[in-house]
Every structure is written in structure tokens, then in C-alpha cells.
Amino acid sequence: MPPIQAHSRPDRSALDPTVVPASHISRQPVRSTWTLDRLRHERAIALGHVLENSTRNVYNSATVSYLNFCKLHNFPIEPTSDTLSFYAVWMCGSERPVKPSTVVGYLSGICSNLEPFFPNVRNIRTAPLVSKTLVGLKKRFGSSAKQKRAISVQEISDVQSILSLSSNYDDCLFLALLSVGFHGLHRLGELCWPNDKENRSYRRLIPRHSVRVEDAAFSYVLPAHKADPGFNGSHIRIVKRWDSIDPLPIFNRYLSARDNRFPGFLELWLDSKGRTPTKQWFQSYLRRFCAPDITGHSLRSGGATALALLGVPDSYIQKIGRWSSDAWQGYVQAHPVVLHALMSETRQNI
After folding, report:
1. Largest interatomic CA distance in the chain
2. Which residues of the chain have pLDDT under 50?
3. Is residue 191 part of a domain?
4. Nearest to 181 by CA among 269, 114, 265
5. Who's near 137: CB < 8 A, 6+ residues apart?
6. Domain that residue 166 falls in
7. Can you tell me where the transmembrane regions are (predicted)?
8. How crowded is the C-beta side of 234, counted as CA atoms within 13 Å?
9. Neighbours of 4 (CB within 10 A)
10. HSE, side-chain direction, 13 A CA sphere, residue 255
11. Are 96 and 173 in a shared domain?
């Protein structure tokens, strides 16, 4: 029997009418041809925008620690299941130990930075030896997360009673941030700039021109957040929910002071020197008027807890706080007060 010969299919042009109808070809707009260098250049720019500056800095730090580990132990830098698992054990058990959950993030950074040189690194990262090593490290060195206490409605009211009559501009700013952060379930990074200048971006600042004030509410546009890395923007609307802490007069008082002092500035939140407040600035104010166990994250968790105690359905709280489904479930599990309030509301509706 004569051998069977493979017949290669003839190449068809993308403009072949048997592949693409002529009616569709005629609709294509005219575009210039780019050189290969231009294509590579534009792709490099796009890849450079994948990671936020803060994430990139963490990833670079993780990669440096991995390279140092390989140098100290005379290992080749090419990742293998052995070197990655050894690195994880070394980081968790060294003189300055790192939490296993942090090591997981480090491995993600190592994979991200080394993938252009070692394309198979992500498959190696998910190898059974590496995965099982991480599970064992979590059981051996893992510890429960220390959740900051949620701020209460009464504590917000106490600060409001102290600062509501102050004529100091920064006092007005802090009280407005405190109120908006609590009612809007904001992360502190959505209202304030990072302390590290390298991690700041004007694209993340809430613009003044997006503010809309109504009779019983006000709103603005949040350009981006953790669940919106594509900068689609979220429309935030703040309304009064508790009689003792009405956010509208607090916000209006700050807005009037801000517009009188800085009428031509883009940013919504500005301190007395015309600068965007940093996390450090806010936290220093917070320590002056709140208990030591209250931090910037306490606003978000406090607002969510207060809404749960009001009987607001958990699906609404998740949307108000812009949580992804997995993040919301993790948050509820980590905050027993919220879980208890949601369970109590469910029992009442049965």
C-alpha cells in the first residue's frame, strides 16, 4: 500500500472573500501600516500599564529577594519546583520570617517578572511540590488575621460634635473625609494619596467637577478602585442613614470652604496648603480624636457593620462597598458582627 501523503492546506489571505465576506471588507477604515519596532514599542507601553506602581514595587522587591536566595545557596536563577519550594520555606523560617500568605504574593511577583525569561515559570509555580509546601507552611506558621476594630456610629457622632463648630479648614476636611468614608464604605486609598510619592496617580483622584449636590444627598465619581482596575468609574451617592450623623451639612461646609480657597483646582479633597491629603495625614488626625485601635480601614468596616445592623441586605452592602463576590464573603467571615447582623435579619424575614 503506498504511503499516505499529507496535503497542506493552501494559505488563505485574511481578505479572501471565501473567508471574510466582501461586504465586511469594504467597511474597514483606512489604517496605516506600523513597523515591527512600532508594534513592539506600543505593546511594551501597554504591558507597562498592567501593574500599579505599588504592586510593581512589591513584585520587584520579591524578585530581588529570590535572586538573593539563589545567590546565597548557589542555585541557578531558573525557577524549578525545588527552588520555589525551598525559597518559600526559607522566607517563612528565616531569622526575619515572612507570613506564608505574603510568600504567596511574592511568588506571584517572581512569576510576573521572570516570565519573559522563563515562560514556563507559572506552570512550575502551580506544581504539586510547590502547592503542598505552601499548604504545609500555612499550617505550621499561619496565624489569624488581625482585624482592626470597626468604628461605630456613636464614635463618628462624638468626633462630629467636637469638630462641627470648628472654623479650621483642615478640621472641616478631616470631618468630611471621616463622614464620607463611613457612609460610602470607602477604602482610605480611595480618598487619600499613598504616603509613597512613587505610588501616587492623578487618575485615581476624585475630581471636583463630578460632584452633584441634591436636597437630601450628594454624589461624585470614583475613577477607580480595587474591583475596577480598568478605570470605568463608579458613581457614589451619599445619603443620610442615621439621624445623629447627617453627612450632607458636613460635606457642604467643606465644599464651600474648599471652593472659596481653591476655586480652580481639579481635586475634590485638598488640605489647607492645596495638596491632596495623604494616608499619614488622615491617620494622624484620626489618632487625635479616636481610640488607638481605630485605623483608616475602620471606616469601611464600620460603615458595612452599621448597614448590616440596620437590616440592609448583604447584596446591597456588597454593591455599596464595591466588593467582589469572593472579597465580600471573606470580609463577612472575618467580621463576626456583620455575620451576626445579617443572620439576625434573615431570621426576622423568615
Report:
1. 100
2. 1, 6, 350
3. yes
4. 269
5. 88, 89, 92, 100, 103
6. 153-349
7. none
8. 22
9. 6
10. 17
11. no
For 286-330, write each residue's pLDDT tens digit: 999 998 889 988 998 899 888 888 888 888 888 888 887 777 777
Task: Determine the Cα–Cα distance for residues 206 and 190; give it in Å rounded to an integer.
Answer: 8
Look at the chain and count its residues.
Answer: 350
Instruction: Confirm if 225 and 241 have CB atoms less than 8 A apart.
Output: no
Residue among 76, 43, 107, 127 at smallest CA distance from 115: 107
Q: Residue 280: what are its φ and ψ, rounded to 5°?
A: -65, -40
Please indicate, yes or no, if residue 198 is contained in any of the structural domains.
Answer: yes
| CB 321, CB 315: distance < 8 Å | no
pLDDT of residue 287: 93
Cα separation, 82 vs 103, whole angstroms: 15
**Tally of domains in the chain:** 2
